[in-house]
Input
Amino acid sequence: MKKGQAKLSWMSKLGLLIIFGIFLFWWLFPVYWMVSSSLKVEVEMFTIPPRWLFKPSLGNYKNLFATLGFSSYVINSIIASLSSTAIALLLGSLAGYGLARGKIPRKNDIAFWMISTRMAPIVGVILPLYLIFRKLHLVGTLQGLIIAYTTFNLPFAVWLMRGFFMEIPRDMEEAAMVDGCSKFQAFLYVALPLAKPGLVAMGVLCFMFAWNDYAFAVIFTSGKTQTLPVACARLMTEYGIVWGQVMTTGTVLVAPVLFLGVVIRKYLVRGLTMGAIK
Output
């Protein structure tokens, strides 16, 4: 019986490894193909059979940034993404802490109302936001895009930060206040550091939404204020697709998100599970 159980255990592990390997290949191969294609000349991209060994070329990157001026689009994406993420984290942590610790009537209903605004599809809020931004002369500006991103990131940040703070024991904050800290100091020096994994996870999710967004960016920006996803879409025209530059732009879009995921992976898993409501 034990021998049979050991064999079954070995087979189940092998099966899981095979399934995991297939999933990993399914996810990594398109990324590899995109990155490798960005380092090829366009003729080498369509050779059959494909060339797995080739001499890397930075021609696509030089053409993208030097000739087409994509550096300004990258800067716009960085400014919009980081700004909206910083605002969402600042206001979301304060509001989340207030909803978790404050004596607010019907605070659970308030929290649910906030997250329900995040459930609305982007296409459902673009028109109202566009009308408001047009009155405020924010259409075609980075400021308007940052506000648009914040309207979607902030409710999500408040909801998750509330869950993170609810998991932190009150005793530590009460002990700090007994030692002379104010309520705000207890939040700043005790609760906020303990919620660091949640802050990191929340920051990554907010950044990913803003960095990858196309719908808001194509409506609320124009000309020199456009972001990288919008500029990438412009490479696909009715006359054809510039595959080398499309692959290069895709690599530039994916690289920061992958880098963040690798660097903060130890915080990300903890942060995503920290605010789970039991």
Q: What stands out?
A: The mean pLDDT is 82. The radius of gyration is 24 Å. The chain has two domains: 2-57, 67-272. Residues 67-272 form a domain with the MetI-like fold fold (CATH 1.10.3720.10).
